[in-house]
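ok so for the tutorial part 2 we go from a plain amino acid sequence to predicted structure tokens. step 1 is just haveing the sequence, like this:
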Amino acid sequence: MILYVGKISEDTKRLLIALLFALIIFFIIVGCIGLVIKKVMKKQAQGADDMMYDVIRAGLFKKKGELIKFGIKKNHVVFFRQAWKPFIVMVSASLIIVLYCLTMNNWDVNIFDYHNEGIGTLFHVFDWQNVPKTKVFGIEIISDWPPLLSSPHWDWYAWGSYVFVPCMIVGLIWFMICVQAYIARSFRIFRIAKKVFSRSVDDLPPQDKPVAPIQ
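step 2 — the prediction. this is what the tokens look like for a chain of 215 residues:
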């Protein structure tokens, strides 16, 4: 086995090392994204505490179901109050692309086109269908960058895509953050209700605990 590995070319060794580093970086990025999402959701869940603090302090609800029902309704109101802004952004982006189609008389617009009418004109576009490959242990893997199909360039004919795509991406991400906050608050509402109406002996004052078995 050692002799066989020694026969591997230097280019193949470099390629294997690069793939190993890429795999490690990929898992690191995924882990970091997971930690960020967890911390963000924890912070977003604090909104449920703000919504329910006063009613819990006042003792307005005597049953867990009533408190949960109130929290869900309150959560709906907060969600709609937050989500209408990104919704307006997405609706505005849709109206802009419709206006573009009307003014340019082009109802078959490809917003990702890289020739002259799409957002792809602003980026490097590679021919991934003809990507160079090499065989390593009988398995074909990518060995180099694919041929370049288009370089970044500005085309006024694509103004509709230039406005629509960024606005829609911002609106979608913003809306997804609102949905994530809604989910985080929902979980927190159930936890708060469970904690408020839990009856644990550990929470009793020392004088209320029986010191001897009750006959």
